[in-house]
Predict the structure of non-specific serine/threonine protein kinase.
Amino acid sequence: MKTLWASDNDFTGQIPDYIGTWNLTDLRFQGNSFQGPLPATLSNLIQLTSLRIGDIVNGSSSSLAFISNMTSLNTLVLRNCRISDTLLSVNFSKFTSLNLLDLSFNNITGQVPQTLLNLNSLGFLFLGNNSLSGSLPSSVGSMLKNLDFSYNQLTGSVPSWARNSQLNLVANNFGADISSNSALPTGLDCLQRNTPCFLGSPKSSSFAVDCGSDRPISGSDNSLYEPDAVTLGAASYYVTGEPTWGASNVGRFMDASNGSSIIYSSHQFLNTLDTELFRNARMSPSSLRYYGIGLENGNYTVTLQFAEFAFPDAQSWKSRGRRVFDIYVQGERKEQNFDIRKVAGGKSYTAVRKQYTVPVTKNFLEIHLFWAGKGTCCIPDQGYYGPAISALSATPKLYSIVGRPNVLSYGELRSATDNFSPNNLLGQGES
């Protein structure tokens, strides 16, 4: 046996030690409920060209030492695996065939070694959501064009090679280098850890986005949904020109022919008055975030809207497809193993709306859709998986009789009083 795929199952406990005695070239364990640490016997699998393990749910932490002799690897994914180590524990200069390295969502500390970024064959590097510190290396290999360092503790100035790369540096501690007159890339200053854009000086009270659309759409809720048609690659972010909102994407659709992140359907959608909002949706192979920037502080109603596209209701092999992901708002998990089609009663082309009341305390809102390895990977096509969203909005939760008052802007207070009637207050209690 050369290949072992056992993803998206209900396996628990530890990965068995005896797997290290098998003669494998491709091993995939993603989307299960395994416990750490990863077995040290995996170090015997030196013939592996592809290793993908993800989503270790609990147990003790693992180190990177077991991969030291797997120098034939082309693809190495150890995502969300409870790894606590430094990148210096592995001599990556020996990994001359490595094209994709994903060590995101772990607890990797220390600096990013220059030897790793110099690998001639490396094209995709995902190191986001760790605890990396220090500054970035001064150069990269000629093939390395997609780099994710988001959600770390990196500092210093953005290196010059960033201009020729897809580079995600969201949620770090970068600043402008005044001595060299080097400014941060457009919008990045609004998405650093201290969120300096409009901190303490809010500029907006709400926002709405039609995900994947190339034109604004007026919704039946009286919101104007702004277009969101920017191409977000494997490691990229975007901030609107105002700025009032932004988005960040991380991940590569594995084994996909085109890997498009925006999907479209001309189908009529059920359970909604706003079928145009659902024509387009944005997908992500790993982690998709939307941000509200410069919002007034207070409690907000966040509305997320979804509809599944490509899994037909009629019984066929395509109807077996499943899209499963987690939803976080302001860092709190609101939904685990969320399945759009399942929530819609097993129907595609049917709108699903999720609403949450969340606090905004630093003029900043984060919505995070996270793929935890669940669902199908290749229905209807290779690389069709991960979170997908059609539209979203965030609006202040107005004064209620039962609940506590929100802090309103003058314009919102004027609007609320101008439209006052007893009926308007009914049913507006805290949810």
Summary: Residues 241 and 425 are 36 Å apart (CA to CA). The radius of gyration is 23 Å. Residues 207-396 form a domain with the Jelly Rolls fold (CATH 2.60.120.430).
